[in-house]
Amino acid sequence: MADEFNILREDAAVYHACLKKYISDGMVIYNENALTVMRRILDKHPNGCFDMIFADPPYLLSNDGFTCQNGQMVSVNKGEWDKSKGLAADLEFHEEWLRLCYALLKPNGTIWVCGTQHNIYLTGYLMQVIGYHLLNNITWEKPNPPPNLSCRFFTHSTETLLWAKKNKKAKHTFNYATMKAQNGGKQMKSVWQIAPPSKEEKRFGKHPTQKPLALVERCIQAASSIGDLIFDPFMGIEGYELRDTGVERCGYQILFNGELLAYCFKKKELYRFLSKEPYNIDWRNHLSKQLEPDNALFIIIRDTLFIIEVKFQHVPGSVDEKLQTCDFKRKQYTKLVHQLGWKVEYVYVLNDWFKSPSYKDTLDYIHSMNCHYLFNEIPLKWLGLPYE
Fold it and tell me: What is the mean pLDDT of residues 204-224?
């Protein structure tokens, strides 16, 4: 049986190589039926190979109804792929892809499943039948949902994400500290208020079920580690050209009209990026201690590294003293990249709390040290990036 199984794997590997796919920057994108792709990957990796799966399956809600879009009544129909074929057929479809995902997950891997009332109860039931152990029921709340035109029931303003592992004893990844830090030092709750994809996120195409980048990023940051392999069987992240530069989380590329303009980093990602070809910079040769920026942005066309620190507060606190360390930190980052000839700009992004007159001396000091501060956001024009 072992020899027969190996032969089957070889045959599957040949077919796997014939799948229509695009490979770039540590990613593989398949242009095939999702179920076919999952079967072929499973043939090649029968014990599973993915650390995390983000599944945004068809909600099967194209029922000839209507909704409101940009103030106009439009059909909810998205295509044949989104039409229900009846409860029995829908159950069969959901069970098939959920079982394939279960087999493709590593023993300690986790899965995120998106849905609304049209499919989430079916998928949640099937997940428990298959053997998944549910970790959380996340409610994604949309701040400004389209109105309900019929006025016969409540306005739909949420979607659900089920987060689960393969079984109750599995040791799943949860980056608790990261989530707590993103939530202002408090435990993050299971209701997430995140706006739908912006026009900017849809500039490469308007997929009708595209998820906002902030939502997907939070799931990845919460449930994966450096080097993890992530699978998206239904292209819930479709449309983005802000993309992971590789499985080691060395940052993201920012492209405009297909042209690479910049790299974006969080925390230690900057150091991992600099340690690789062609830079080969070991921070230990330049600094006695790593400084971890909230964000760093290297603008290629300006040879400039922006160190971006986000400081939002609503009461006096420790941030007040930290603002006065900008000159030292800018000089440390300058030492780090000096041999590359990069210029370093140190930028604070502050909330309106810091507009108080009591911070005038501190803000004047920041400017006197050739550092910068902006309120609430950084305009693309200020960074020297295309903005139209």
Answer: 82
Both tokens assigned to 122: 């079916």
pLDDT in tens, 158-178: 999 999 999 999 999 998 988
**379 preceded by cis ω (within 30°)?**
no
pLDDT for position 138: 97
Q: What percent of the chain has pLDDT over 70?
A: 79
The conformation of residue 83, written as its DSSP 8-state character, comes to S
Q: Report CA torsion sign: 244, 9, 94, 130.
A: negative
Instruction: Count CB neighbours of 144 within 10 A.
Output: 8
Question: Does the pLDDT at position 374 exceed 90?
Answer: yes
As a whole number of angstroms, the distance between CA 244 and CA 260 comes to: 13
For 222, the token pair is: 């919460």
C-alpha torsion sign, points 54, 166, 124, 136: negative
Helix, strand, coil % (nearest 5) of the chain?
35, 25, 40
Q: Where are the alpha helices (DSSP H) in 75-212?
A: 87-104, 120-130, 176-182
Contact at 8 Å (CB) between 372 and 345?
yes
